[in-house]
What we know:
It is a single chain. This protein is mostly helical. It has two domains: 1-92; 101-142, no CATH class. Helix content is 73%, strand content 0%. It has five helices and no strands. α1 (6-18) crosses α3 (45-87). The protein is elongated and about 75 Å long. 1% of the residues are buried.
Amino acid sequence: MKKRSKFSRFAQKTATLAGRPAIFAGATLTVLLWATLGPLFGYSDTWQLVINTGTTIVTFLMVFLIQNTQNRDAEAVHIKLDEILRATADSNKALLNLEELDEEELDAIRQQYLDLAEGARTESRQGRRTTGGAERRRRAKH
């Protein structure tokens, strides 16, 4: 398996660290320290600029790091779901790699599943079973 890039490893570690309670506490203490220093600096423009600049820079950089981590996690989930679909005998293989379709194609497939769900709810209200085909075949054998 290919080794992750330095940036990917850095982004993953940073995102993991950023979500820890100690980091949140440190950020909170930084803001409290800044706020208590307000009277000392006369609530000057420079005093305000320090927190504004610092938080803007941290936020700007964190957006990219967290987005990188989210993209990788989402891709891994898609691959795992694709494998489940591929390995399940009665699954709709057309759903593999669904995230690559354009919005109109996704809407059409979503509507098919909304229609299936509505039909299943109607059958359920009428007291009929709504399990899938594999489940019905398994029960028919017994």
